[in-house]
Amino acid sequence: MADAVLRIEGLTKNFGGLRVTEGVTLDVLPGELHAVIGPNGAGKTTLINQVSGLLAPDAGRIVFAGEDVTNMPVAARAQRGLARSFQITSILPRFSVLENVALAVQARRGTSYRFVGNAADEEELNAPARAALAQVGLGERADLPAGELSHGEKRALELAIALAMEPKLLLLDEPMAGTGHDESERLIAVLRSLKGRFPMVLVEHDMTAVFALADRISVLIYGRILASGPPAQVRADPEVVKAYLGEEME
Amino acid sequence: MADVTAPSSRAPARGLFTGNALPIAIFLLFVLVPLAATFKAEAYVLGLVTRVMIFAIAALALDLLVGYGALASFGHAAFIGLGAYAVGILASHGISDALISLPAALGVSALFAFLTGIVCLRTKGVYFIMITLAFGQMAYFTASSLAPYGGDDGLTVHMRSTFAGLPVFANDRALYYICLLSLLGAYLLCRALVASRFGRVYRGARENALRMSTIGFEVYRFQLVAYVIAGMLGGLSGFLLANATEFVSPAYMSWQRSGDLLIMVIFGGIGTLNGAIIGAAVFLLTEEWLSGFTEHWKVIFGPLLVLVALFARGGLIGVAQKLRGIFRG
Fold it and tell me: Residue B214: which of A74, A92, A118 has the nearest Cβ?
């Protein structure tokens, strides 16, 4: 287990009297797609927020790429290759699509304390940004203001931003949230193309997507891991079926 | 603050009003003023336009904060005062060479910006406005209580700065050109800054700070650097103001002055840099013109500002852009 990209041990978080994360332990192996599923309010986003550093856990440990990052600020984790997407789209709406991604490249390449030269014209930043956009099928939309993209395209842009960070791990918080059927098909195809190249934690409600993509699934209910294992095993688990999948799989 | 800072988040784009034509016209006008002034009321015109350029430097600095970083500082006049007092206090001790007083003015402003910025930048929105106002007032009252340096009454600067012993600031015309060069330098610096890698991160932080930190930028540090730069430009403005007026007063850092600077930026067009210069010119020239009729000139200026706020969100630059759009179809 020493070579896990991400290891979460006994993570616990309370909001007042409410325990939203309760002793969660899970890991992500190199190249693995580890899906986290569970009903609304199970604490999935809270878990992602603790891993990315937006929330501090009350107890437990987060080890990323061999380093304890439990108390590390958000930006420092990102610098180490922890990339995340948001359930509610988080982009720079008045920057061009290309600049949204080029900024992520800039974060990893050279200093950003450079006060001269037009950053928007730097091919060193734009070329990798275009490559990331092409991977998610947004190559044609690069020069548009990001705010003018369709919802599905914004979801794809979130992925492109994460990819441009040269991530060691992708934390994807419901990348398909709010997308229509066609759009989510396209996003699933993109995720499939990324699978194996990047280890991923995928939080998703779309069970078709989860069972099609995941190597391992953890079921989170009331902040606790109810079951964890390969898709077939989780699907057959009577506890899981009773608590969550029963209604979802019909 | 989103509404106030709506226009232009992408750094200088192409087009007449954000490209090079407008700034070239503005600076050409500033170059030509002294030539025109030789015909009539030279001292008066030079003095007035020198003042415009000095405040334009401070307004540029404020636009850098408000327009590109959504950091609505209500205490920016403090930096003008710090720069001016650096000149005044040193001069009262017989030190009036710019080789000492200019670095002192910039250094004090930078230090004040750094120390207050550490605190201010931890807040957002209305709280940021209030806390910058508080620090501005602290500077104001500190200056008012400097009894050895005139206290409330201010301090006369008996000798304009020299540069390496040369009396280059003594002549009004020379001072005019020094201010023009300083404004040009400040303008070019701000323009380079907002388009640079640094500026892109800084602008991004205003757009979506959460996203910027999750891609790996320590947003706060970038804002602090910008705050120090804006503070130093304010200090430069104060250095020039002390030389132009040969007087230093706590009134330079009053909150009304900070408000005037905000009005200049908003009136001209926020987040455009050109607008800050135009706004400073329009504000000071209108003040001069209207105060010829009545000392209550703000009664007339106030409604004008309300009209701009209501109907011209992008300030004068915004109006000009709209008109241009209409004429071109």
Answer: A74
Domain ranges (residues) in chain B: 21-327
Name the CATH topology of A1-81+169-250. Answer: Rossmann fold (3.40.50)
A212 φ, ψ (degrees, to nearest 5): -75, -30
Contact B128, B223 (CB under 8 A): no
The pTM for the full model equals: 0.91
3-state helix, strand, coil in chain B (%, to 5): 75, 0, 25
Give the pLDDT score at B1: 35
> What's residue B165's pLDDT?
87
Tally A–B CB contacts below 8 A: 103
What average pLDDT score do residues B108-120 get?
97
The conformation of residue A224, written as its DSSP 8-state character, comes to E
Of B142, B167, B138, nearest to B152 by C-alpha is: B142
Give the C-alpha separation, A37 to B182, whole Å: 60
Q: For chain B, give the mean pLDDT.
A: 90
Looking only at the bridges linking them, the beta strands covering A216-221 and A200-203 are unpaired
**Which member of A95, A106, A165 has the closest CB to residue B197?**
A106
Let me know if domain B21-327 sits in CATH 3.30.70. Answer: no
State how far residue B220 is from chain A, nearest Cα, in angstroms. Answer: 11
Distances in Å between the Cα of B119 and the Cα atoms of A76, A165, B131, B224 are 22, 31, 8, 10
List A residues 29-88 in contact with B (Cβ-Cβ < 8 A): 52, 54, 73-76, 78-79, 83-84, 86
